[in-house]
Amino acid sequence: MNNRIKEYRARYDLTQDDLAKKVNVRRETIVFLEKNRYNPSLKLAHDIAKQFHVTIEELFLFEE
Amino acid sequence: MKKTILLFVIAILALATVGLWIYSSKNTFSAGNIFQVAVIVILVGFALFFGFKRIGSSIRGEPAEDELSKKMLVKASSLSFYISIYLWLIVMYFSDKTKLATHTLIGAGIMGMAIVFALCWIVIYLRGIRNE
Fold first, then answer.
1. Domain range enclosing A29
2. Which of these, A31, A41, B81, B112, is most buried using a 10 Å CB contact count?
3. Which residues of chain B form beta strands (DSSP E)?
4. What is the predicted ipTM?
C-alpha cells in the first residue's frame, strides 16, 4: 500500500510535526507512514484523510 | 507520565544494584562479571532510551504512546516470547552439561529474554509494520 501523505502535506504547507499534532500521533508515526513502513489503522487513515479533505482511497493507494 | 516515571525508577534501581554489586566485590571481579555488567548496562540504556523518547514526545505536545508505538511493543513482545521459549530450552539443555548454579542459569535466562526483546524491537523498528 502506498500513500500520498507527503504530497498532500506539502500542498497544505504542514510539517510532519503539525500533522502529527492534528491527528494526535507522534511525529515518528508520520515519518513511518510517509516511508511506507507502516499501515495505519482505519481510524488514523480516516483522521489524516479528513485533515486533507480527501477520501481514504484518494490518500492511500491500494494495490492488488 | 506514570509509566515513564516507573521506567526511570526501575532503571535507577537496576543501576544502583549493579553499583552495589561492583562495590561489594571489588577484587573478585572476573571477565564473566564484566560481561554481565555490560549486558545489564546496555539493557538499562535501552530502557532509558524508551523513557527519553516518551519525555521528548510529551515536551513536543505529542502523546507519549500512539498506535504505532503500542503495535511495535505488542509485536516485539509476542516475537520475543516465541523466541524465549527456545532460549529456555537451550538453557535447560546446558543446565545438565554445565556445573553452573541454578540461580546463575535462571539469571542468564532472564537476561537473555531481555536481550531477545530488545533485539526484536530493533528489528521491528527497522523493518516497520506493513501489510498484515
1. 2-61
2. B112
3. none
4. 0.86
